[in-house]
Amino acid sequence: MKLGWYGFELDLDGDWAPAAVNGNRASGYLRLASGGKVGLQLRWEAAKSQPNLQRALEQYSAKLQKDAKRSKQKFTFESESDVRGFAYRYSGTGFGRGRLWWDENTSRTVFLEAISKENESLLAPLRKSFSAFRTTEQDTECWAVLGLCVWLPRGAEVTKRVFVAGRTHLAFKSGRSEFWAERWGLADQLLKKHPLETWAKSVTRLPKAKTVVVSENLVEVLRPKTWFRPAVKALVSVDEAQNQISVVYSEFRESKWEPQWDWLKK
Description:
With 266 residues, the chain is of the alpha+beta class.
């Protein structure tokens, strides 16, 4: 599974899915669940300069201890520092092993943990996820979840998300531009009765828009700018190997947010 979220990327083996998501680019939390007993969770907090990581870890430990006390659970916490930051483990209302560090590329403090309700072995999943975690200083960033994968210019904020069987939808905003990306499964069934060009107009709700058939599996949908509404551009791509359709749609007021085909690169 590939996860891309606010400049973070994780490539994980297995069927992981988001179980909880909240926050924004500056501060947030994301928990991933799989079919097993072990989960992963990620916390981040932006700052203008590197904060005191020891203090951040102590504050986090105090919160965990408070939760354990409220649940009348015994609490233990151990940590050690290294060149990247801190490694730690705890038991209380649950069990966890984590890493805390300062990410220079995104100017954020990051907590990454393997967690379980039972006393499972968490060292291996933590090491795998920590080694798979990355950020970049590129002008574009990956947004990937549940089969959806798009590359957008840096700076977008999520305004809506829909995770349902067969469809993944993320809506974004930046300034006065609004845009969204979708992944649809079972492409062969969706296109069984209608050609891609017709389906593209339907899913973008632009029945009278101009379309450009780039190839058998690529279609552009275009609505020009007028004095009272922004330009609209959508790109629709069929991935036959994965049997899915990817769509990016943008009502853009800045050229930066005009969709490009490399937004849909894998």
